[in-house]
Amino acid sequence: MDASSHHARGEASSLGGVATALIDSDNIVLRWSQAAAELLGRTAAEVCGRPVGQLLADTPDQAHRAKHCRAETPTAGQVMLQHSSGRTVEVSFHALPLEDCSERLLLAAPTRHVIDWEQGAAFLRALLAQDRMGVAIHDTDLTVVRTNLHPDMFGGPTPAVGGRLHEVLHAEDAEVAEAALRRVLETGVPELNREQRVRSPQVPGRHWVVSLSAFRLEDAMGHPTGVAVVFTDATERRRARRRLDLRQEAATRIGRSLDVMRTAQDLVDVLAPGLGDLANVDLPEAVYEGDEPPKVLGGGQLHMRRAAVASAAGPWPAYLLQPGEPLPKWPDSPGLRRWQRGELVFAPDRASVVATLGSWHYPLAVPEHGHSVVSAPLLARNLVLGEVTIWRTEQVEPFEQEDVDLLAEIASRAALSVDNARRYTREHRAAVALQQRLLPRAALDTPAAETVGFYRPAGGGAEISGDWYDVIPLPSLRVAFVVGDVLGHGLAATATMGRLRTAVHTLAELELDPAELLTHLDDLVQQLAGEAPRGQRDTIGATCLYAVYDPVTGHCTLASAGHLPPLVFRPDGTTEAPDVSPGPPLGVGGMPFETTTVDLAPDTVLAFYTDGLIARDDHDLDAGTRRLTDTLAALCRPDGGLHDIGRALMADLGDAPPRDDMTLLLARTHALPAEHTASWEFPADPAVVADARKAAAHQLADWGLDELAFTTELVVSELVTNAIRYAGGPVGLRLIRENVLVCEVTDPSNTQPRLRRARTTDEGGRGLFLIAQLTTRWGSRYGQSGKTIWTEQPLTTPTHSKL
Fold this sequence. Notes:
Number of strands: 32
Largest sheet: 6 strands, antiparallel
Shape: elongated
Oligomer: single chain
Helix content: 25-40%
Radius of gyration: 51 Å
C-alpha cells in the first residue's frame, strides 16, 4: 500500500478501511474494491478473474492453503496475503453468502486493526457496565450521547442521553465543568483526576465532590468528535483527606505554646473552618491561673470564661459571648452532667439542638442558623479543663459520627497541651514569685542615695534566671550597691541567687571591706559547687559587683568578681566607667579581689547592670556598653527622675523577648552637708573623757538636740573610756546627724568588742550592755588600722526607757 502512514491509520480505523471482494462458487474474484486494492497494492484488473487463493502469501504451508482455497472457502478466519511489494499482510476476514445466488462477499481488514476494534468495543462495554464509575460521552456541543449513569448510582444528578450538564447541575457548577470539557476539545490535552464540587437543584442542600478524567475523541482523520468523561464520587475521599489534613494540622499547631490562652486559640483556629463554621473554647477561671479546675457536678455558677473564639466567615458574631466574658449559670441537665463526666454532647440537627438547649434560655450561646453542634470536654488526667464547641451554620451538611470521633481525638490531644500549659503557668508563677520575692524593693530612698531597680526576665517572662540587684543600708548612713549574675537559668539558678543574696546581706552586716566580702562569697560558691551533683559542679558560679558609698566623705569603694563595672554619670555631664580591676568569677577561687575608690559628687548617677542589658546578636559587649552609655548619657538630665530614665531605657530596648535576663540598678548619690558632722581627736588620757562628753553635749545643743544629750554623754563616756583603757590613743570621736544620730569612736586596736552580762560582784563589763539598752543598734567595723565602734539613736526621745 503506497498511501501515507497517517492516511493508512485513518482508513484502517474506519469502515472505509475494510477491504471487500466478490467471489463466485469457484472462489474466482469477480469484483475488487478500492480498499482491497490499497490493502494489497493490486488493482481490480490484476485480481479479477483469478482464484482468490493466488493472493495467499508464499509460506511453508503454501500447498495447504492453496488446497484449502480450492475447497470451499471458510466463513471466517485469519490468513497471510501477499502484497504486490513482496511483503505479507495478515488479515482477518469474513465471508458473507448473498441471497438468491452462489456468490459471496468477502470482508477483510488488517488483523491488528480488527483486534483494536474488538478490544475497544469490549472496553467501552465494560465501562458502561460499571455501577461505581460513571461514564459519559459528549459530542462537540457537549450533549450527552451515551452514558451509564442512573439515579441510584450516586444519589445525585444524572444527565440523560440528549441532555446537557446545566439541566441537572447548579448553573455555576455546570459552567465550570463545561469549561473544562471545552478545553479538552480545543487543545486535546486530557483532564486527569480533576476534583470539582457539584450541586443539584433537584437535591437542595447537598453537594458532591466528583473526580473526573476527560479525553478528546477523534475521527479517522484526527478531527475531534466529542469528549469522553470518566468520573467517580470523591466526596468521602475528600472528607477523609480533609480529616487527615486536619489531624496533621492539629498535631502541628496545637501545643506549640506553653500559654493557656494561646493553646486555646490555636485549637479553635484549627477547627474553624477545618471542621465547622464557629468554634469556641471555655475554661474554668482556675485554669487561667494554672490551678486545677473545681470538681463539681450539676448546674450552677461554674466560674468559667470564654477563652478563645474563631469564625470561618469572618469576625466572631457580636451577639455571641465574647472572649474573656464569664459564662452565666448553667441549669442542671443530663447533657451538662455528661459533659462534666467527660462525655461528648452531640446534636446533629436543629431539633436536637433545641432539645439539648431548650432548658437554657441564653441567646449568647446559640448562633443564628446553627443547625448542628458538637461539644467535647478537654479531659486530661481525669480533670475536665474546659470544653470546646463547634457549630455548623453555613455548611449545610450536619456533623457525622466521623466528625464527632475526630473532634474527640483532637480535643484529647489539645487537653494535654492545655494541661501542660496550665501546669507550666503554675510552676512559672511560683518561680517568678520566688524570684521577685528574692529581689529588693524596686525603689528606695536613703540619706546616701536614691535608687531604682529594673528587671526583665529572659524570654519575655517565659524563663527565670539568677540575675539580681540589691541596695543594703549600712551603719553610719552608708549604703551598699550589689549586682550579680548566676550561671544558667531555671529554679536552680534562682535558688542559688537567693542563697548568695542572703549571704551578701549577712556579710554586709559585718561591715567587711568589699574585697574581703567577695572573698567570703567566693568560698560560699565553692561550697555550693561541692554540694552539687558531680556532673553539675561546673555549672555553679556567678559574677558579682559590690560597692559601698559613704555620703559623708563622698567615697565609693568597689570590688568586682568578674562583673562589669558600673557607669558613672556626673552632674557636669561627664561620663566614665571606673577602672575596676575585675577578679575571677565567684567559685573559681585562688585569686584575690582588689578594691577601687571613686570620689562622687552629689547627684551623680550610677548605673549597675548585667550583661543581658548590652548583649546583642553580634556578642560584642564593648559595642553594647557604648550603646548603653550613649543612651543613658542622653537620658540622665539633672531634672530627670530615675524612674523615667529607667523606663525610657527599657522601652528603647524594644519588646522582643530578651535571650538573657536584663537587670539595671540606677542610683543617684546624696551628700551629707558638712554642718551635719562633727569630729574630734583625743589622746589616750582618762582625763579627756570629760572633754569628750562636753564636746558632744555642746554639739547637740548647736543642733537643737538637747533632749539627746544625757544619753549621748553616757554613750560617749563609755566608748571613749573603753578605747583609752584597752586600745590606747589617739581616740577619734565623730557625731553624724541625719535621720538618726550616729556616734562613732575610733581607736587603733583590732580587738573585737563583745557584749556580755556582768555578774553582781563584777566591777566592770556593763559598758556595752548599757550602750545596747540606750541605742537602737550598735556595732563595729575595721579599717586598714584600728576599728570604729558606732551607735545609732533616733532623733526623737523614746516614750519609754529600755532600762
